[in-house]
Amino acid sequence: MSIVDVRSWRCAAEWGRVAVSHCCRPFLFRSSIALGLALCAAVACDGDSPTEPPDGTGGPASLEATPETVSFHAVGDSVELTALVRDSAGNEIAGVSVAWASLDSAVAVVGSTGWVVASGNGTAAVVASAGSLADTVSVTVAQVVAALEVSRSAVSVGEGDTARLVAVAADSNGVAVEGAAVDWMSADEGVATVDGSGLVTGVRRGGETRITAAAGGQSDEVAVSVPDQLAFQGGDDNFDIYLVNADGSGRTRLTFDLGEDTRPVWSPDGSRIAFSSNREANDEVYVLNADGSDLTNVTNDAGRDDMPAWSPDGTKIAFVSDRDGPSEIYAVNADGSGLENLTNDPGYDFEPSWSPDGTKIAFRSNRDGNYEIYVMAADGSDPTNLTNDAGDDSRPVWSPDGSRIAFSSIRDGNYEIYVMAADGSGQTNLTNDAGRDVVPAWSPDGTKIAFYTFRHGNSEIYVMAADGSELARLTNEDSNDVLPVWSPDGSRIAFYSDRDGPDAWEIYVIDPDGSGLTRLTDDPGENVAPAWRPRP
């Protein structure tokens, strides 16, 4: 329902002023009835008021306006008033000119024939007069809420952010009811709360609820979503760590340094971010809170420390360091204490990946002459070559249930996506295409794997079933789309793309069926390496 501007009824009020008898116009502004009647009686209106009836019988002796009271529940409602003039014997006298006037046109206006129209809440006296005779009708306007409309049908609000909703109550004619008391309620305060003024606060990312406004027995609802959030590295002159909501709103810069801050990864509870930075002349691993506070260097060594990976319980961070020569995999407590060299081998060890239960770490190593996928206990013991093939293998990633490991391999002449059991058995080529297929990413439920491929000359995002079937191309651009990562609920895939220009990498999200493409960033420079924030 559209809400009618009450000013239109103010215009009606002006019409009422004109419609009132000329002699009584000066007394329409809340003059007292007695004073108004006395003065009107003393001034002739269009000549002397008739004192004799047309038929020459007895003159007017009384005037009665009916009904005595009128009640309106909507601005713009109207009714016709009547006035009877009688002689001293009580006989009705026809043809006597009666003038009508409202003593408060902000509440009610009246026309020359007695039609009275509600123009605003309150009580007003409407006066009927003929010569020295007069009577009044009490007109009360009290709007009743007949409809309620909230300003927005849907709202997205980030976790901890706020959004203002406005509810407009209207009467049966669509005129806003000023000052109507509106009650607000959230269907799930664990997702979003609302206060008595309609201020909505996002509580839990990834949730949806409904906010209800109610007044006078009427109500309206608003769909409220608290979008998921991503961290990424972005910048023009140098990289810093940023946040952005999954709908593109709420872009927030967390780090402010001339160094390069890269590879953001979330702690499992979504409260902290680990990243690599060269702000102190060499790469170190840092941790900060999700609001950018409490920045801590947790590695603090002259060597290069990179590729941070949180343990599933959030107590440790594995990373790659060359502090002892060739790259090794280390682990450190999240506060920087308890440093351990886990691999301690002359070969180069990279890409640590924790098993979902935190008991093992898969990694890439060339300790046997070429790069293979290894697994070791979380304390570094019992390293085992899982792939054991002449081709280079890389990018190990555990399935959500920990039973399988997906990886990229060049063993068949070009990079393909393979999967194997957690013990290395059952190694299977899932993609089997002449193009280069790299960087597998499991869906949260373990049923699908996303990856990017160069089979079309440029890189595109694909998704397939975990057994290699149901291959589907999600992006189809002449540009490059890379590094797909799944949202916590598996409903969206984030990636970054140079489709907006070779020097303008931006972050996008897309549905797993290829629909719903949305650009999240639109900034100079490069915005890359998106990482979804885990849900609480």
Describe the protein in words:
Helices cover 4% and strands 43% of the residues. It is mainly β and 536 residues long. The strands form 13 sheets. The protein has a four-stranded mixed sheet. A four-stranded mixed sheet has the order 11-18-17-14, with no helix packed on it. The chain is elongated and about 130 Å long.
How many separate helices? 2
Give the overall pLDDT as a whole number.
90
Poorly predicted spans: 1-56
* Rg (CA only): 39 Å
Features:
single chain, 536 residues, mainly beta, 4-stranded mixed sheet, disordered N terminus
Show the helix and strand layout:
Elements (H helix, E strand, L loop, with lengths): L6 H13 L13 H10 L19 E5 L2 E4 L5 E3 L1 E5 L12 E4 L5 E3 L4 E4 L3 E9 L2 E9 L5 E4 L3 E3 L5 E3 L2 E4 L12 E4 L5 E3 L4 E4 L4 E9 L2 E9 L2 E7 L4 E6 L6 E2 L7 E6 L5 E6 L6 E6 L6 E2 L7 E6 L5 E6 L6 E6 L6 E2 L7 E6 L5 E6 L6 E6 L6 E2 L7 E6 L5 E6 L6 E6 L6 E2 L7 E6 L5 E6 L6 E6 L6 E2 L7 E6 L6 E5 L8 E5 L7 E2 L6 E7 L4
Parallel strand pairs: 2-9, 11-18
Antiparallel strand pairs: 1-4, 3-7, 5-8, 6-7, 8-9, 10-13, 12-16, 14-17, 15-16, 17-18, 19-20, 19-46, 20-21, 22-23, 23-24, 24-25, 26-27, 27-28, 28-29, 30-31, 31-32, 32-33, 34-35, 35-36, 36-37, 38-39, 39-40, 40-41, 42-43, 43-44, 44-45
